[in-house]
Amino acid sequence: xxxxxxxxxxxxxxxxxxxxAEVRIGFSGVLSGPMAALGQDQYDGxxxxxxxxxxxxxxQPVTVLREDDQLKPDVGAQxxxxxxxxxxxxxxxxxxxxxxxxAETRRLKDAGVVALSTNAGPAPIAGKACLPNLFxxxxxxxxxxxxMGKYVKDQGYKNVYLMTSNYQAGKDKLNGFKRxxxxxxxxxxxxxxxQLDYAAEIAAAQNAKPDALFVFYxxxxxxxxxxxxxxxxxxxxxxxxxxxLIDANSVAALKEQAVGAIYGTPWAPTLDNPANxxxxxxxxxxxxxxxxxxxxxxxDAANLLNAAVASLGGKVNDNKAFAAAVKKAGAEFPTVxxxxxxxxxxxxxxxxxxxxxxxxxxxxxxxxxxQVLTDHQDAYVxxxxx
Length: 386
Fold this sequence. Notes:
By secondary structure, the chain is of the alpha/beta class. It folds into 2 domains: 2-139 and 272-346, 3-Layer(aba) Sandwich (Rossmann fold); 143-265 and 351-383, 3-Layer(aba) Sandwich (Rossmann fold). It is 43% helix and 22% strand. It has helices at residues 2-21, 36-52, 73-85, 98-111, 123-126, 143-154, 168-181, 199-207, 219-231, 248-254, 274-287, 293-311, 319-329, and strands spanning 23-29, 56-57, 60-68, 91-94, 114-117, 134-136, 159-165, 184-191, 212-216, 240-243, 262-265, 341-342, 348-360, 363-376. Strands 7, 8, 9, 10, 11, 12, 13 and 14 form an 8-stranded mixed β-sheet that branches. The chain has a 6-stranded mixed β-sheet with strand order 2-3-1-4-5-6, sandwiched between helices. Helix 2 (36-52) packs parallel to helix 12 (293-311) and helix 12 crosses helix 13. The termini are far apart.
């Protein structure tokens, strides 16, 4: 009888171990349309790190399921539900646009599954709607704009024209800029998300005669905007500041048209630390293009998960324990940013810089102008009660 009981107990233990042996990850992001490059970069960065880790997190084999949310909140919510209920994933990665992420939070809250946003950090989930299982690997939405607001103020600009897309992140970005700028706003313009023709808006900005222009436009939208700014003859004449517009993808498309643009960021391909140099070299070798901030977010997400899974001995079926391990690993994993930690609201604490696109020796590159914010914390952390 004792032998039978022992055998059954051993079988149960082995079965439990087998269930934990595979770490299942669901990646949901925009992989089609004008914003597809952002989602692809996040995915490629994640998969590069996973490849470097031998396809394993904490020594456990990893399966990655990938879905395109099409930048549609309802589609994103359906994908998250599928990942949780049918695919039984241990963690969800991506969740890259704020309007989509906000539609997904109820399901994430109800299920308690670990979720890593590799781009979006909307104000509500940094504050009153924060979740213990939702972590932002990029930045709280306001962060890079806050850096630009401070930099523009420090440079002595007094009257700035603001433009962005009309959605949650756009509103967060301009609020962040204004919070640290504190000067006169010539106008605050919100354009439909996905708009590609900005001739009328650029003409209106020119007629307002501001000291400078600050915009938040990403992906193909940002490329179109910058081209039209050049066509209007304003690039180089009207000081141009942005966030999430300038990256390796947009510079590859814009070439000399991007030269002179100044932007806020927690990372750049030229950020000087050994881990970043190795990452950039490996990314360029594998994908034949330079990584972006979004690539970094995906890369860091994979290395973070590896550290968290390792700390649990590969046992990731307890959502609360897994989330606690992710939070602790935030200050310990090998980020290419040099320094990173999660705040009490699961938003990053990190440095922000001002960079400028410059041409040196016939090559377009990124020059660090200033470290604008050090160990920066977002403005909403006190509202998060968890």
